[in-house]
Design a protein that fits this description.
By secondary structure, the protein is of the alpha+beta class. The chain contains 9 helices and 12 strands. Strands 4-3-2-6-5-1-11-12 form an 8-stranded mixed β-sheet. It has a 4-stranded antiparallel β-sheet with strand order 7-8-9-10. The longest helix has 23 residues, at 20-42. The structure holds aspartic acid. Aspartic acid (ASP) binds next to strand 8 and helix 7.
């Protein structure tokens, strides 16, 4: 059964700020990316194509902390990370610290398909992009007023502004195609005010992104330092592979027990070969959407909306 899920970050946006109008905008953004990815699956194309399609749309939408809407580093720049993985072969590609690549998820796919490596960072990753014929984008592409304003507020010590943007807007997608192959992708601008070339969980295979047909495909979001230490993405798949847990039980265990036990706030989306989905988070909300061939279709932010 084909199925896809996407997320737009685990967050702590205060409920009073998510007005009906604001939610309508976010909702439309999620629906567009979800349906585009689902249409790829419906055509019989691969889960890899489907998740790349969804994530590219989210990267181009300034609403999310990925691609165009990436948050700013401490010194006022944008540094983007992304990863992609396919469950049939365990092949993976990832990029970190990009400043001139419009769609990091697609560069991650090129790393997987056309390089002997898994993870490329910084200038070297952008050299590889040029070699592959990827057009570099001026830094100004990533300069959105909203993120700049959040950066300014965070700098002047507005804690609330810092909190809102820190955990907000990373994007990801997981899918299973008609051949029963799963795939996962994650793309992010990281955390606002990050320093010293900080890299989060998103481009780290096993931490923020993972896919294995024997288990499941996972894309995580939240406070990266905790997600890395809890190796959340691999952990969900491993609980299925070694302990025979369902994807829902494995996701719950990792997010509500292991991650929470470390003090980490976040969530993840996951799908297995049979099309079973899990959308689990321990933060107040997680922008998320899912669609499966059995008719399941949801778009939500807070917990109660799924009920
Ligand atoms: N996990 C991302 C990071 O730490 C941030 C997020 O998911 O919002 O870079």
């Amino acid at each position: 059964m084909i199925a896809i899920a996407i997320h737009g970050g685990a967050g702590t946006l205060p409920r009073q700020e998510l007005t009906r109008e604001v939610w309508a905008t976010y909702r439309a953004g999620l629906e567009e990316a979800l349906n585009a990815g689902y249409a790829v699956l419906e055509r019989g194309a691969s889960s890899l194509d489907a998740i790349e399609r969804s994530v590219r749309i989210l990267e181009d939408d300034p609403l999310w902390n990925a691609g165009r809407g990436a948050v700013f580093t401490e010194d006022g720049r944008n540094e983007l990370d992304a990863a992609i993985m396919q469950g049939a072969t365990l092949q993976a590609g990832a990029v970190a610290g990009l400043s001139h690549v419009r769609n990091p998820v697609s560069l991650a796919r090129l790393v997987m398909e056309r390089s002997p490596h898994v993870l490329l960072a910084g200038v070297g990753a952008e050299d590889f992009a040029i070699e592959q014929g990827v057009e570099l984008t001026p830094r100004s592409w990533f300069h959105t007023e909203r993120r700049w304003d959040q950066w300014l507020r965070a700098r002047t010590g507005d804690q609330r502004a810092g909190q809102n943007v820190n955990y907000f807007g990373t994007v990801g997608a997981v899918a299973v195609d008609s051949h029963g192959n799963v795939a996962a992708a994650t793309s992010t601008g990281g955390m606002t005010g990050k320093r010293w070339g900080r890299i989060g969980d998103s481009p780290l295979i096993g931490a923020g992104t993972y896919a294995a047909n024997a288990g499941c495909a996972v894309s995580a979001t939240g406070h990266g330092e905790y997600l890395i230490r809890a190796t959340v993405a691999r952990e969900v798949s491993a609980l299925m592979e070694y302990r025979g847990l369902s994807v829902a039980a494995a996701a719950r265990e990792v997010v509500q027990v292991r991650l929470k036990g470390l003090g980490g706030e976040g969530g993840l989306i996951a799908v297995d070969r049979a099309g079973n989905l899990a959308l689990e988070f321990n933060s107040e909300g997680m922008f998320r959407a899912a669609r499966a061939a059995n008719g399941r279709h949801l778009v939500a932010c807070y917990a109660e909306e799924e009920a």
